[in-house]
Amino acid sequence: MSSISELYDVSWEEMRDKLRKWREENYRNSEQIVDVGEELINEHASKLGDDIWIIYEQVMIAALDCSRDDLAWSCLQELKRQFPDSHRVKRLAGMRLEALERYEDANKLYDSILQDDPTNTAARKRKISILRAQGKSSEAIRELNEYLEQFVGDQEAWHELSELYINEHDYAKAAFCLEELMMTNPHNHLYCEQYAEVKYTQGGLENLELARKYFAQALKLNNRNMRALFGLYMGLFATSHQPYTPQNPEAQGFAARNRDEVDCVQLKFQHIHGEGLSC
Amino acid sequence: MSLKLTTQAYCKMLLHAAKYPHCAVNGLLVAEKHKKKDSPRDSVLCVDCVPLFHGALALAPMLEVALTLKSRLIRPGNIFPVFNCPILIDAWCKENKYVIAGYYQANERIKEARPNQVAEKVAARISENFSEAAMIMLDNSRFTMDCFVPVLFIYDHHDNKWKCREPSTDCFEDWIEAQKITAALLESKSYESLVDFDNHLDDLRNDWTNPEINKSVLHLC
Question: Where does it primarily localize (chain A) (predicted)?
Fold first, then answer.
């Protein structure tokens, strides 16, 4: 079994930097993290300095994802030794119990953290994750709503809630969550595009028009977003065949304009074909 | 009307599920178009699968792009091999004389193998165009690296309901081969290079027809 450094011809510094990149951008490539991290810990622990503790944490979580309980346990032991009374380490111990499906014990651990420190957001979010893992979606949604009443600025939580609502087909509420995210991140084309997808899925002329607008906005923010381009096309198509109704006399006008825009989008596709752009 | 799977179709389904163990995944199964339209087939052979999405499966726009968008967007005759333009499933099916014959889904949670609303809707849509369409749910709880047992629940459409078939190895063209090759590809982590339609939308250079994996399957046969 050759090591990562031999296979890919990388130095330990490059491996450490890769781990940092994955950590900062929240990647869930757990198998890679375990491979790289395990080697770093086993071969180069002394060179890492204080970085080693955060690497232990990252590798432990990745090890849980890969069912490597041996590795997770040894990382946890090191962290417990270094930070004996830490809530952060306690939360990791809870995550290990979750991975072993010992949800009762995990909940007890998180409750003890919350008794000590009621503002500990990590423990509360883990409790909600347990509900999700057990398939208790409505309870997870309820708890997450309560959490967000207190911690309104937690974007990760808003996104999680939007996912839960989408899985329950409650698109109106999912849209609300994405609106919160768009308000605080107006330049994020991904939130715009996801909001448009939710609106499109909701259906109905108004929502389709709104979807079309937000797909267009996402494209404006990032003109390589293929989903936004496809979405814009689908939205235009869906709204370009509306008959006149007395309730919505402008519908035909919009429809005609949208039919012209369909041609523009087709030209854009050909333009992409020529330029070889990717997202 | 029984559905059969080739090794390639089964393999790619499992690789797709293995690539995203923390997400729900779904995709389509394709069969060759029946040449004699009047005589009925005795079985439908699904020769390949198209991995579609991972993560949020309940959103409509990209699913509609996958299922319904026709190739009029692309200049005719210029679909392949230029990989910097979107490859539409409809165009690929026409090129290879395939028809969409089934839908597969693996749920997010290990113990959850029942078809949900999304699965039923998509499968119903497919059966509008292909009356013998089947819906396949992956059984995550029996999914192992060795692939000793088939991990599928196959559902057929009877009287507007989806009924689960008795699990057996009859639905494989060659179960022993499928088991061996799938286990080998899982062991060699081929799932890391599997491309689904989502990956294609992220970067048009990613080819969801997965020619490299198809080659590996052929090579191991």
Answer: endoplasmic reticulum
B39 touches chain A (CB under 8 A): no
- A26 vs B contacts (CB less than 8 Å): none
Q: What is the pTM of this model?
A: 0.89
Closest by CA position to A55, among listed A82, A87, A106: A82
Non-local CB neighbours of A80 within 8 Å, separated by 6+ positions: A89, A93
pLDDT mean over A34-61: 92
- Distance from first CA to last CA of chain A, Å, rounded? 37
Order the strands of the B134-138 sheet from edge to edge.
B2-5, B43-54, B25-32, B98-106, B134-138, B152-158, B161-164
Mutate to test the interface with B, among A223, A230, A265 (most CBs of B within 10 A): A230
Nearest residue on chain A to B202, alpha-carbon basis: A279
Q: How far apart are CA B118 and CA B128, in angstroms?
A: 16
Chain A partners of B73 at a C-beta cutoff of 8 Å? Answer: 233, 266, 269
Nearest to A270 among B61, B75, B205 (CB): B75
Q: Is B70 on the interface with A (CB under 8 A)?
A: no
Q: How many CB pairs under 8 A join A and B?
A: 80
ipTM for the assembly: 0.88
β-partners of residue B45 are B4
Phi, psi of B101 (to 5 degrees): -115, -5
Confidence of residue B165 (pLDDT cuts 50, 70, 90): confident
Banded pLDDT at A245 (limits 50, 70, 90): low
Say how far apart CA A31 and CA B14 lie, in whole Å: 17
Give me the pLDDT at residue B200, please.
92
Minimum mean pLDDT range among A168-172, B41-45, B101-105? B41-45
